[in-house]
Design goal:
The complex is a heterodimer of chains A (about 575) and B (about 210). Chain A is α/β, with parallel strands linked by helices. Chain A is built from 12 helices and 18 strands. By secondary structure, chain B is mainly alpha-helical. The chains are: A alpha/beta (about 575), B mainly alpha (about 210).
């Protein structure tokens, strides 16, 4: 499916990155008639070979933990390929006191191959949060501007859910939701007692056939990648139609290092390292769409220094790399004795939760700004390595007693993952490390990261909520967190939730923002950024759906500008 | 990232890695940790010779553990998850081979497990004048009952290293067992198959 071309041809657009943002741009631009060269820093993906759908742990020699057990720290070996917080030969650094973990997925489709498929719209207030509470910045666009693109994305990729009319969680174009699992029904019952909303989740998984893709077969393994493409990934849902136009040239194993600028101050192409030959190549293009992931895009812009732009491309504001945020993440779980009596049954369902808890205290008086949602887990999941470590630690011992305890306790846990909004702060950003380069000679990122009191209070509230839900279900809350130390209230290190955004935000004022409301650089009008970088806020909604909606909107604008000869 | 992608874990508490880290800090100024890697490396070299001299045809040839240590590993895996009326045990489920494979690829496990097995024999030699496998069943039971519980260290702090080793081995044995066909069937997991319709939760018991 790939074609490597090193001819002096000039493409209409060079898109950098093939994930949610880049894949969407490639699709819309090629379908609009433009020629596109798509650079991807990793190899192509072959679902039949690379995805581990229906594989049992015992079919892998390492049972899912990888060579030497090392993959256990990185989600294990089952998830769709080529992603981790550390990539050999491609380092990053953290400033003293900062602990940021940067997840990268080098493969066609990027992180959409393994992602959780949670597809939540930002709400109207998320675009105007500064107006509401004085923190951060407002977006230059309103919900009404992006809503038609949410409609288009949902209609095209397929998202299940239900109309609920909740102001913090706008309804979308939904396929019917799957039936709830036992753990979810138990949680919902608790939530009803406590006045907490618990509703069908919204995942990019097909519960009905859509656009030539078959319906989900409920194996519960979306994260491994789906060989039937019954869930959304860029590699299976965006790249194929772009290739079908005949206007897309896929260039895998291509690590972009610099966007080249001509004497007229416009981008004229991209220099990249062909990883297979370790040689430098050049793509000439009339416009560049940067969608390498929020931090990788910031890195590329900052490394694209030139005489015209000595501080990096599109960086006259000095804001590239600033305003970095990740979601606030804190997890918990509890033991529910009632679940011991549930008969064995197929609990798999779709990959991910069938019910979730949207932010429900949006009208309340909270001691922290913004909000969080809660993702649900637990129950009779497929056994795997690590599943009984907690039992071993709690019950200790050995022999028949240990075995009986594992049997009795299997499937009796309910689990929670709180995901909340971080407010951008001046101590959290990425910049070019002055000393370190990667194996391709490209200067790497250095991260600065700090949670503020707002995020810690949110994590505390999450832990209290998890405990209340477990106890209302007659269970024992098992997660113990401390109020001090490196991870107060179980807050995870920055980057661990893999929702990093904001590093090239959009805005009306070129002095404080990088892009205009169409993701077009203020400084260079033929450069666009369409990944998580343009996001002005990082609300308690996973960013992927919004990245795709913004990319679609920006790509239509780019098409229009190209037709008018404005690029 | 959604919850669905996270590593699975039941219960909670201090992880065994925390225990090991704490012990490592407290263990005689780190001398234990500095000595054992060299020994482990030497053992790895000897292993190949022993392998060639050892196992009868058809038997598993350990990739890391020398024959005697591997026999001890088999004994311990069987003790941790034995066969019972419902299912076979950890040895039948291939847990020792799984543990040996990981150890062969990771110096951390070579140290923790290779060193731990030697600690155990040393402990038994001091206490019973025999290595573990040559002890009486009562003696074997006694030593396992000591190292299987953190509270034993309160009465006898010299057990710390053995407790840490056993916690690691117990977790790895569970990993090996519950990722096997036998272990997955023992839990009565139903799934990993294509369904036309997801049936949802059966009626919940009160």
């Amino acid at each position: 499916m790939t074609q490597v071309i090193r001819s002096p041809k000039t493409y209409d657009v060079c898109v950098i990155g093939s994930g949610a943002g880049g894949g969407m741009a490639a699709k819309i631009l090629t379908e609009g008639g433009l020629t596109v060269a798509l650079l991807e820093a990793g190899p192509t993906v072959n679902p039949e070979k690379d995805y581990k759908m229906f594989v049992w742990p015992y079919e892998l020699p390492h049972r899912g933990v990888g060579v030497g057990g090392r993959a256990a720290e990185n989600f294990g070996e089952f998830l769709a390929p080529n992603g981790a917080w550390q990539i050999e030969g491609e380092p990053y650094t953290s400033a003293p006191g900062a602990n940021f973990q940067w997840f990268r997925s080098r493969i066609v489709g990027g992180r959409t191959n393994h992602w959780g498929r949670i597809a939540l719209r930002f709400s109207p207030v998320d675009f105007k949060s500064k107006t509401r509470d004085g923190l951060g910045e407002d977006w230059p666009i309103a919900y009404e501007d992006i809503a038609p693109y949410y409609d288009k994305v949902e209609s095209y990729i397929g998202v299940f859910g239900t109309k609920e009319n909740i102001s913090s969680a706008p309804d979308g174009v939904f396929l019917p939701p799957p039936k709830p699992r036992c753990n979810e029904l138990i949680i919902k019952k608790s939530c009803d007692k406590l006045g907490i909303l618990c509703i069908p989740s919204r995942l990019a998984v097909l519960t009905k056939p859509l656009n030539g893709r078959p319906s989900c077969h409920y194996c519960g393994q979306c994260g491994r990648g789906c060989t039937t493409a019954s869930n959304f990934s860029s590699s299976q849902v965006l790249i194929p139609p772009a290739l079908k136009t005949g206007k897309l040239t896929m260039i895998p194993n291509a690590m972009a290092r610099k966007i080249v600028v001509g004497a007229d101050g416009k981008a004229s192409g991209v220099l990249y390292i062909d990883k297979t030959t370790r040689t430098e190549q050049r793509i000439s293009a009339r416009a560049v769409v940067v969608a390498a992931s929020a931090c990788e895009s910031a890195r590329l812009l900052l490394n694209s220094r030139s005489l015209v732009f000595p501080d990096g491309l599109a960086n006259s504001s000095g804001q590239v790399g600033r305003n970095l945020t990740d979601s606030v993440g804190s997890d918990g779980e509890g033991y529910i004795p009632q679940m011991e009596k549930i008969p064995p049954h197929n609990h798999d369902g779709t990959g991910g939760m069938h019910l979730y808890i949207p932010w429900w205290k949006y009208d309340g008086q909270n001691d922290f700004p913004r909000g969080y949602h809660i993702e649900l887990g637990g129950g009779r999941e497929m056994p795997g390595a690590g599943m009984f470590h907690g039992i071993c630690e709690d019950f200790e011992g050995y022999g028949a007693g240990l075995k009986a305890t594992c049997r009795k306790r299997y499937g009796t846990t309910i689990a929670f993952a709180g995901r909340g909004e971080m407010i951008p702060n001046p101590d959290t950003y990425c910049e070019i490390d002055p000393k370190v380069v990667d194996q391709y000679g490209i200067p790497v990122l250095r991260f600065h990261f700090k949670w503020s009191d707002s995020e810690l209070k949110q994590a505390k509230d999450m832990q209290e909520t998890f405990k209340a839900i477990v106890e209302a279900a007659g269970g024992e809350y098992a997660t113990k967190t401390r109020s001090d130390g490196a991870y107060p209230y179980g807050i995870q290190a920055g980057g661990k939730i893999i929702h990093e955004v904001g590093t090239a935000r959009m805005g009306r004022d070129p002095k404080t923002s990088i892009l205009n409301s169409y993701c077009q650089a203020h400084d260079v009008n033929n450069v666009f950024v369409t990944d998580g970088a343009p996001l002005v806020t990082n609300p308690d909604k996973n960013p992927t759906l919004t990245i795709m909606a913004l990319s679609w909107r920006a790509s239509e604008y780019l098409l229009d500008q190209a037709k008018r000869g404005n690029l | 990232m959604s919850y669905a992608g996270k590593p699975k874990k039941n219960g909670q508490g201090i992880s065994r890695r925390d225990v090991l880290r704490n012990l490592a800090v407290g263990a005689a100024g780190g001398s234990v940790l500095q000595i054992i890697p060299a020994e482990a490396a030497e053992l790895a070299h000897k292993m190949i010779l022993q392998e060639k001299a050892g196992a009868p045809p058809g038997m598993y040839k350990p990739k890391f553990f020398p024959a005697h240590q591997y026999q001890t590993l088999l004994f311990l895996c069987d003790a941790i998850i034995p066969k019972d009326e419902v299912s076979g045990g950890a040895v039948e489920a291939g847990a020792p081979e799984f543990i040996d494979l990981l150890a062969s690829e990771n110096e951390k496990y070579q140290l923790i497990l290779g060193g731990g097995l030697m600690w155990l024999d040393n402990f038994c030699s001091d206490r019973y004048a025999h290595m573990l496998l040559d002890c009486t069943p009562e003696q074997q039971k006694e030593v396992l009952s000591l190292i299987a519980y953190r509270k034993s260290a309160q009465a006898d702090p010299t057990l710390c290293q053995g407790i840490a080793f056993f916690a690691e081995l117990r977790a790895m044995t569970c990993d090996g067992f519950y990722t096997s066909k036998i272990g997955i069937e023992d839990l009565k997991y139903i799934g990993n198959t294509a369904l036309a319709v997801f049936p949802g939760c059966p009626p919940l018991p009160e």
